[in-house]
Specification:
Blueprint: E1 2-8, H1 13-28, E2 34-41, E3 48-55, H2 60-69, H3 71-74, E4 78-85
Antiparallel strand pairs: 1-3, 1-4, 2-3
Domain YCII-related: 2-87
Organism: Magnetospirillum molischianum DSM 120
Protein name: YCII-related domain-containing protein
């Protein structure tokens, strides 16, 4: 498993909103490996500032291929993307 944390570029909320439908369709097409996904929020708990995704996928190369094809990534939304291997313990 891998945890993916994507931080949006400042002042790119319009890019997120313009590509949201395509991004969600993309994620729905990867449900066989996607464990969970959702937006990271600012302190106001309303403004989306990034994404958190967890994938149960074979290896880092396969994950990188999926991430590169994400409409958000293609649109240049992210300032940074951090990938960390993860081991689920609970529940």
């Amino acid at each position: 498993m891998f945890v993916v944390r994507c931080q949006d570029k400042p002042d790119h909320q319009h890019v997120r909103l313009d590509n949201r439908s395509d991004h969600l369709a993309f994620l729905n097409a990867h449900l066989e490996t996607l464990v969970l996904a959702g937006p990271l929020l600012s302190d106001d708990r309303q403004t989306m500032i990034g994404s958190l995704l967890v994938f149960n996928i074979a290896d880092r190369a396969a994950l990188d291929a999926v991430l590169a094809a994400d409409p958000y990534a293609k649109a240049g939304l992210f300032e940074s993307v951090t990938v960390t291997p993860f081991k689920k313990v609970l529940p």
